[in-house]
Design goal:
Chain lengths: 359, 237
């Protein structure tokens, strides 16, 4: 059913107007940000877009299917290393993006199934522990895969990774487009925006599909779900695979954007940050997850300015901005638990769940 | 040939033998009850039939197919529906979403919509609350929802596990009224109950289960007049 069909002419044009304004705002955003906050902020919003993709991917596993995954960053790593190995001097390869990105996503999906299969019977805490272990295994594996044959270059990581190049049009350098001079972060911004739109579209479709309902059913009562004719095994594996696919995709984009990957970027803390984006924003709700991802990426960057502020006010820095970040993050999480346990923008479903638990 | 035929079925939980070689049959169109005390193995039997527990040995034949070793979701596609003990409602989904779960494996959307409308006419309580969270329904309404959900899967055999459990007497009457309406439509029903009087009242035949074995069987009215059944389950001396 099309939502637009139910609206009157006037309301319909208002919807289109809002959509057009939103689009215009998103297109102009990097210019506005660059003019007001400086060049480095364009990179920050690029990263925020990557985290939106990651958070939406993890949201499929945690938010929809209710499987607590603490090793999600492993799929990000798989995607990133896939790009890094296939488009860098490491093996002297430089394959085009339309091979590497799908390959990275597919290999990540395979790893998703690999993680999902032995953990099918686990739930809650037990699943969290196994997935946490899985995430660490992948990271340590990458870290040590420089001997006996050097594949990943170990802790030094892989440098000089080729940037994204779309049929000869490189996003790695400044380009002139339609009379505008766009730097690399600008170009990546539009690419990532497109990818986020794609991921959001897939998530919306999944949410309201038969598969989406099956995930909710499994989250609620696995036995009743099986009795209703849901192939619980495949549907759970599908959640892992779908989540991993988005992780792998973001990983590949990350490697091309950053030009450098090392095992350090894929530690447990990263998994926890992605999970907290979802929890903070509103588990299972797409706008909530997007908001969470933006807040968790942007606020720490904004806090860097508190160092300068302290210097101006007191003549010296009393609290290191990095420490302040963890302090505020902790306070924010405690406040959330107290006042908005279902997240900033909870889904209807989750709101019901928390209301029920409180009653 | 009977719709359901269970032969020498044994089910073990690790080393505990819960069902010890039972035999029974259900014919097309009849309502059969499986009665007995707590722990007799009735629920275990139903769960095994729907594939939620593995059979240790024996055969389950349904509609000409052998169900042993088949996963639950496949059995569900053969139109064998279970309304589990405690109703198995998805409490955080809405009433409508719950109903749609019953039609999970159906592709004839228009027919499903029609049947949902019919259910709403028959059970106006569900219609009033169709956008409400199913967990907020009363126990009786939840049982109605569970029955309606199972009906949406177009079952050839409907298995009901303790539909009267935890319900107020007036609700038990209503729920049993609905079960009889379903039976009149020609749906075959296998009913498991501890409330022996009720179960024998609406079924044609019955099996009595004790400690994992079927100890007695026969027409329901004969069982109701059996001195042993009366003494053990109907509280008459």
């Amino acid at each position: 059913m099309n939502v637009l069909d139910t609206l009157t002419g006037k309301a319909k044009s208002r919807v289109w107007l809002t959509a057009a304004l939103l689009l215009l705002g998103l297109v102009l955003l990097p210019f506005l940000v660059e003019a007001s906050l400086g060049k480095s902020w364009v990179r920050i919003i690029d990263l925020a877009l990557l985290y939106i993709m990651l958070a939406l991917g993890l949201n499929i596993v945690v938010g929809y299917a209710g499987l607590l995954d603490l090793g999600y960053v492993a799929f990000y790593a798989v995607g990133a290393y896939c790009w890094a190995l296939l488009a860098s001097p490491q093996f002297g390869l430089n394959l085009p993006f339309w091979i590497i990105l799908p390959a990275g996503a597919a290999i990540a999906a395979l790893f998703g199934v690999l993680l999902g299969t032995p953990t099918l019977r686990l739930r809650g805490d037990y699943l969290a522990i196994v997935t946490l272990g899985f995430g660490e295994i992948i990271r340590i594996f990458i870290n040590n895969l420089n001997a006996p044959i050097n594949i990943t270059n170990g802790p030094q990581g892989i440098t000089l990774i080729e940037p994204m190049s779309i049929f000869g049009f490189s996003l790695g350098k400044t380009q002139d487009v339609l009379g505008l001079t766009l730097s690399s972060p600008h170009l990546y911004y539009y690419l990532f925006l497109l990818c986020v739109a794609l991921v959001v579209f897939v998530c919306v479709r999944l949410e309201n599909s038969r598969i989406g309902r099956a995930w909710v059913a499994i989250r609620e009562d696995e036995m009743a779900a099986a009795a209703a004719g849901i192939n619980t095994r495949n549907i759970k594996l599908l959640a892992f695979a779908m989540g991993a696919t988005f992780g792998g995709l973001s990983g590949g984009l990350f490697a091309s954007f950053q030009g450098f990957v090392s095992p350090e970027s894929f530690n447990l803390m990263e998994s926890i940050m992605i999970l907290s984006m979802i929890v903070l924003g509103g588990m299972g709700n797409i706008p909530g997850v997007i908001l969470g991802a933006i807040l968790v990426t942007v606020i720490p960057e904004a806090l860097r300015y508190t160092g300068d502020l302290q210097r101006v006010l007191f003549g010296q820095v009393y609290i290191d901005p990095a420490d302040l970040r963890m302090l505020l993050f902790g306070i924010a999480l405690v406040m959330m638990m107290l006042f908005r346990p279902a997240g900033l923008l909870p889904s209807k479903q989750r709101k019901r769940e928390f209301a029920e638990d409180a009653a | 040939m009977s719709l359901l035929s269970v032969q020498n079925l044994c089910v073990n939980y690790d080393s505990i033998r819960a069902v010890k070689g039972i035999n029974f049959e259900v014919q097309q169109g009849e309502t059969v009850c499986l009665i007995g005390a707590n722990g007799a193995g009735k629920t275990t039997t139903l769960k095994t039939l729907s594939g939620l527990l593995p059979a240790t040995s024996g055969d389950i034949l349904f509609d000409g197919k052998r169900l042993n070793g088949m996963p639950a979701y496949q059995i569900a596609t053969l139109n064998l529906a279970l309304v589990p003990e405690g109703r198995g409602i998805f409490t955080r989904m809405t009433v409508l979403e719950n109903l749609l779960m019953g039609a999970y494996n159906r592709t004839d959307r228009a027919a499903v919509q029609r049947e949902i409308d019919d259910i709403y006419t028959l059970l106006p309580r569900l219609a009033e609350r169709h956008q409400q969270q199913a967990g907020l329904l009363s126990g009786g309404e939840q049982q109605m929802l569970a029955l309606a959900r199972a009906m949406l899967s177009k079952p050839k055999l409907l298995m009901l596990d303790e539909p009267s459990m935890g319900l107020a007497p007036i609700m038990v009457q209503t729920v049993y009224g609905i079960i009889q309406t379903i039976a009149k439509q020609g749906i075959t029903i296998l009913l498991v109950e501890q409330n022996v009087r009720l179960a024998l009242g609406i079924s044609q035949r019955g099996y009595v289960m004790e400690h994992g074995e079927i100890t007695l069987s026969g027409a329901s009215h004969t069982l109701a007049n059996d001195p042993a059944v009366q003494a053990a389950y109907l509280g008459e001396l």
